[in-house]
Structure formats: structure tokens, C-alpha cells
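Re: the 172-residue chain
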Amino acid sequence: MKHILVAFALVFAATPALAQKPQAGAVEDTVVGYHETDARMNAAIDQARALLPLFLQEFRNSSAPGAFTVKAGLRTSDGGREHIWVGDLRYEGEQLVGNLINEPYDLPGMRLGSRVEIAQDDISDWSIATPDGVYGGFTTRVMIEDMPPAQAQQYRTGLNMAAEPTPPWWVQ
């Protein structure tokens, strides 16, 4: 019975140090296991992936690249996947790269801040932080639904999630 691990954290911090040492009242990292056949999580991943071309186009054209993060499913020691947030995104040639903004649970040789190369097929979610709130975070929205109400409210407030996951300026 395979499980996937999904990291959830204050993923919209400007630097990995903020994610490592949250400010008073900030949201702490949480790792939640979902079965690989979980319908809601798979639907969230499918929705994020369907919109990924728009996200990547906006990222390439952005003058604020620090506002963009992706969640990548990286291989664990047992061959499964740990879905973890990656920030400080940039292209090196045509290769999308970034740095882990969560402490990994089971990614051998990696830690908070580790550089990773990101294959487009490994991206399971994305987010864009704006003054109006954070767009994307499809998997995060599923995880919030599974939390106790007080904890869920703390995450919603701490992450400033936009009411809708898709930016209103995207024409679909």
C-alpha cells in the first residue's frame, strides 16, 4: 500500500530561512500522508497540472519571480514520492531549478535549501503570492479541509489563500 507524502508549510516566505524559523504566530511545517489513490488529492493535482502551462508562462514573463513556487514530487528512499515545495525558482538554460523551502521528510541527501532540478512531469502544484492573496495551492486547499477547524483557520490566515485558486486575470 503506497502512500505519498505532501509537505505543507509557510511556502510563501521570501527566503528559506523564514520557512525554517517561522516568526511568532507563523504556520509551522506539517507533513501529511495521502494514499496514492486519494480522489480529492489526485483531483487537486490534476487541476494544478492542467493550469501549469499558464503558471509557467506567467513565471517566465514575471518581474517578481520570488512570488512563484512549485510543489514537486521527488523520489523518496523507498521509491515513493514526497511532494515538497520549491522556491527561488529560476531557469538555468531550459531547466527549471529551485531550492527546497520545507525540511524534507525522506529525501536522502537533501535538506531545507537544497538545490533541485524540477522536471515538469514532477510538478504537482504551484502557487503565486500576490497582494490579493495566494493563488494556486490546490493540494494545500485539500489539506486544509482535512485539518481540525482551528488549525485550518490558522493556515488560511497565515497563508492568505485567495478565495479562488485560479488568478482572475487568466483567460482559460
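The chain has one domain: 3-159.
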